[in-house]
Amino acid sequence: MMTSLPAIEYFQSNTGARIYRIPLEAFPSLITYCYVILDAGVPTLVDTGSGYGSCNDHLMYGLAALRENFGEPFDMKDIRRIIITHGHIDHFGGLAYMVEQTGAQVGIHELDRRVISAYEERIIVATKDLRIFLARAGVSEKLRHGLLELYGFAKKHVRSVNVDFSLGEYETVDGMQFIHTPGHCPGQVCIRLGDILLSADHVLAKITPHQSPESITHYTGLGHYLESLYKIARVEGIRIALGGHEQPVYDMYERIIAIRTSHQRKLDRVLDAIRNADAPCTISEVSKFIYPDLHSYDVLLALEEIGAHVEYLYQRGRLAVYNLDEVEREDNPALKYIVV
Questions:
Q1: Against a cut of 0.85, is the pTM above it?
Q2: What percentage of the chain carries pLDDT values higher than 70?
Q3: In which domain, by residue range, is 284 found?
Q4: Do 167 and 302 belong together in one domain?
């Protein structure tokens, strides 16, 4: 039996491109959207879901529904091009399966290319960088071990896939304009089709996209993300933004302002937490103060989120490392911060 999912939605841009928004359950309780684009060159699939659990079945069901429920003269094997908006597993984990089903060519931005084409290598390197971050964040060895196990658990079903082409900055292909928006992910792109923007995870209706420090992965981090928000805010004439999660955004420019405001509030909370603490604080201590009731994988997400905001403040001279003698003396001690 199919999991209860939101309805497939149809949109048409002022350039004539027809866009179908297909919901998938990427992981339990996480709905991700992929998109089928017609009348913009060859039939194109944007993102493929996670490939985890029933996600591939949901995608097959959605593609079949274009013919059965919407009357499109379309078959899954008509897809000749698959574009991945960014290298996060809920958006590309099903890629190998879809390439097998369709034989389509695959495109992604060059900064995320090796996430797909050398997936096994990327997991090893990323896990090592995450281990170092958690130690510097002041996470206990026992908790570090548990968080790293959670990090790797849902990634074991994915395998490398050949990438056929890269998505260039502001390049236009068949009416699709690719805009590089790093921050949430190094190679994330938004795709403009006239007055519609496929905004990936860059602009979402309710949540602010997850941030992780650039110390874990280059071209992530809050600084890059805010710069990318300014870039998209300067793109005029967007009527609808269709993200990788949540509802369509019909007031994208106002939503961008709200996201900026949300991050400023979080920066202020981080500063207040460190300023009002009894002693210099680690990232782990700040995270526990701001998010006291989290469990399981949410603990890791909170540590990365707070880590990104601490990194942003440190890079801009608002914080200093207090325990420099310990940092100089030991290999990888926890960093303790003070407000300056």
A1: yes
A2: 99
A3: 262-339
A4: no
